[in-house]
Amino acid sequence: MAVAALKNDTLSPDRQVLFDYAVMLGDTALIHGQRLSEWTSHAPTVELDIALGNQALDLIGQARMFLEYAGKVEEAGRDEDALAFLRDGFDFRNLLIVELPNGDFGHTMARQFIMGVYSSLLYEALSASQDDQLAGIAKKAVKEQRYHARHGGEWLVRLGDGTEESHARAQRGLDELWPYTHELFTTDPVESAAAELGFGVDPSGLRAEWDGLVDDVLARAGLSRPEDDWQPDGGKRGEHTENLGYILAELQFLQRAYPGAEW
Amino acid sequence: MNETTRDVVELGQWFDAYVADEKKIEPKDWMPDAYRKTLVRQISQHAHSEVIGMQPEGNWITRAPTLRRKAGLLAKVQDEAGHGLYLYSAAETLGVSRGQMDDGLLSGKDKYSSIFNYPTPTWADIGAIGWLVDGAAITNQIPLCRCSYGPYARAMIRVCKEESFHQRQGYEIMLRLSHGTAEQKRMAQDALNRWWWPAVMMFGPSDKDSAHSAQSMAWRIKRVSNDDLRQRFVDMTVKQADYLGLTMPDPDLKWNEERGHYDIGEIDWSDFWKVVKGNGPCNRQRLAHRQKAHDDGEWVRDAALAHANKRVARATRDAA
Predict the structure, then answer these.
(1) CA angle, corner A235, sides to A230 and A240, nearest 5?
(2) Distance from A99 to chain B by nearest Cα, in Å?
(3) Is B67's CB within 8 Å of A48's CB?
(4) What's the domain count of chain A?
(5) Is the Cβ pair B303, A158 closer than 8 Å?
(6) Closest to B78 (Cβ–Cβ): which among A53, A161, A261?
(7) What is the CATH number of the domain that holds A143?
(8) pLDDT tens digits for A159-183?
(9) How confident is the model over B80-95, as pLDDT tens digits?
């Protein structure tokens, strides 16, 4: 069972759900952006360095909007940076798939595609949120995520169709990531409460459309849809892989080494 | 049609007069071989510098201290990749291919700016690079916006706009650090100590020792001498360091009333030549990093090409 989160006691239960929900979205974008930014200067071409950097920048931008908003909702004096840099791993609510190492370019494109399609559907639904702030962030983010889905999908097709090696690598990336895709569609109590309150999205409802879009690209790429077997989860309740500790050690280094300094 | 000696002599006279008249040479215009060669060397070297320059700054993206700084640094490094690409395109207009330029960089035949062979051990290095390295680069590049070769001059106009934004961003990082805690101020001073002399040397050897200066000036590729550019940079930067409350690592630095400029101490050119010849702190690391990215990406580039060829083959077959 996940450890109980530290709560601001003065926050109403509904505001607490809004805070938790915004943090969940912000954390996934933040950890994903952090991982993707590791590609900088390592990409197969300078053009791809720009494309990956651009997508990392989109994700960091989304994280900032969600976390800044969560801080305002919480009214405990925490801003985007306090939330990003001064929490430990068990208070992070990101999906496990985004904290996995980047792997090779095939692995990264498989993740960009999986997450691009998922986040496009999620933000499309969230654009109708009764919370204006969440709806506003989602409307901006959906355009970005559709581009990530398109770019990742086009690369999966190129790699799947290209050479024997690229086909094998793309398939391996997909196989390694596949178990973690199930968590995208599990409904955490925060998500069901947020959906009931009218400002959040129950992700289980996105599955059918995601399946259709993913199957279509896999067919064009000549890649096989992996078997549904092992289905790890836990990110949404703060139970992470060992990777997250290292990501945070790097992400949070300066804020931890020089407490209270302004940058 | 064969060019006769007479043609070349006449074209040479035309070229000299045209350039002297401040007109731009465009890719399809006639130009002396040596002019073309000089530009290919200079522009590809400039492009390589942008691409290699992604490494020292990219080094801090995952450790940037705030999300705003992280976004700013990511955007900046992306801009550098973009500058590399426009410069490669400008060089391509002179008949050299991207593949030849990539090979030139990876084989060590082509140079890139030595400044990127210094390491970035602390966050303050990100501030110092923006402030000093981009500051020196802009000082060098503003006159290049008036270079006689059209595509290079136009690329420089765009590059300079973005560089000037980077320079302000770097200075703002330094300002925050130098007005921050004692530990931050120490970090800022340490970075200034390490980057000042390499930045001063970015303008290259004194004009009397510079191999290419005189001809480049005549061709209107180069507009201002190395020493004059260096002086502009020093005069501007000393005042900025004062405002930061940091000390320049040069005991001989002083205002010269008579010249109306700052005098600086003797430049240690042996350090410059050591780095140019490949023995700076990071030369090997930077090239090895570039080589690894190139090698690791080979299967991706091969796959993209194979896919494109298969598509063409399928389209041809379907049309038949």
Answers:
(1) 85
(2) 14
(3) no
(4) 1
(5) yes
(6) A53
(7) 1.20.1260.10
(8) 999 999 999 999 999 999 999 999 9
(9) 999 999 999 999 999 9
